[in-house]
């Protein structure tokens, strides 16, 4: 169950190891009980990805600070679209799969590259824009 997966850092090609999240985040509520795959060259190389709580499998590919930020923005863009279109989360992902021509196994923002995240943000904004004006100002 806690068997570590052999993965490599896509930036510096060092190995990545399953470590407690407190290594990166410090000991706080955010890191409590959490694990992540961290590049063995950290902190010189700032690449990591969260691991699933139960299985300890990586949630996607290792990402540096820029890519982690892009993935957050892509998630936000998709959530926004979901809201304005009154979609369920799974419906939003089906929509995304169709737009990007991906299978359900591939359509995880945690696995997306910088370029793919830009595509998600662009597509979501495009699809949400006609509806944005109809929403009461937040
Ligand atoms: Zn690295």
Characterization of this structure:
The protein has 2 domains: 44 residues, no CATH class; 68 residues. Helices cover 40% and strands 12% of the residues. Helix 2 crosses helix 3 and helix 2 packs parallel to helix 4. The longest helix is centred in the middle third of the chain and has 20 residues. The mean pLDDT is 91. Bound molecules: zinc ion. The site of zinc ion has 8 residues, from loops. The site of zinc ion (ZN) has 8 residues, from loops. InterPro entries: DUF3268. It holds the Pfam family DUF3268.
Helix/strand-derived category reads: alpha+beta
Largest sheet, spatial ordering of strands: 1-2-3-4
- Give the proportion of residues in helices: 25-40%
| Spatial gap, N to C terminus | 44 Å
> How many strand elements?
4
Counting DSSP H or I runs of 4 or more residues, the number of helices is 4
Radius of gyration: 17 Å
Distinct small molecules: zinc ion
Largest sheet: 4 strands, antiparallel
Order of helices and strands: EEHEEHHH
Write out key terms for the chains shown.
single chain, 138 residues, alpha+beta, four-stranded antiparallel β-sheet, 40% helix, elongated, binds zinc ion, DUF3268
In short:
The protein has 138 residues and is α+β, with helices and mostly antiparallel strands. It is built from four helices and four strands.
